[in-house]
Amino acid sequence: MESCDVIPSPRKSDILEGSAAYSTPVITPVRGPQPRSSNRAFIAIGVFCYFAMTMALYAAITLLHPGTALDRLWSLNPDAYRDLLPICKPAGVMFLLIATTAAITGYGWLRRRIWGWRLAVLGIGTQVLGDCVNLIRGDLLRGGAGLLIGGGLLIYLLSSNIKNNFTPVTDSGPSADQKAAH
């Protein structure tokens, strides 16, 4: 028979000697999952972020490299293309930034990170402000329709039913102090 070395477990008083014996570490329970909103609607918003990324990337490519066969899609909004052509390089770079932001938003949204929710609210809020500007400029159809759709989506995003789907930054698990206490 082989012998086994037995390592005695430390006594509680030995553990407390290096720390404040009068203090008991408190472990905050991690909040369990909250009721989830409709999974289809939730996924649809994540897909919408990736669609926005695709369209912004398309705009960036066609503005940074004008005169290609890809320019045909601008026939859906020729006024915007005409207005952006004189500043095509800076506008193309801006659309690349928008595409990157939309991709990051979609990633955070579908992984239910609070920063993904914040980016989505910021993006839709910016769109709603742009729709207000369109209304002020007299473009009632685009501004009005955009304001109704974007405003409704913003109200939906700001509802507690949606926000409760996201993991708060503080709920990332026990802290280093809490782990050391055990």
What does this molecule look like?
With 182 residues, the protein is mainly alpha-helical. Among the domains are: 36-111, no CATH class; 118-167. The protein contains eight helices and no strands. The longest helix has 26 residues, at 39-64. The model has no long low-confidence stretch (mean pLDDT 82).
Q: How many angstroms separate the termini?
A: 35 Å
The amount of helix comes to 55-70%
Regarding quaternary structure, what we see is single chain
Task: Report the C-alpha radius of gyration, rounded.
Answer: 26 Å
**Unreliably modeled segments:** none
Structural class based on helices, strands and sheet pairing: mainly alpha
| Gross morphology | globular
Average pLDDT, all residues: 82
Q: Spell the H/E element sequence.
A: HHHHHHHH
**Discrete helix count:** 8
Write a concise keyword list for the protein shown above.
182 residues, mainly alpha
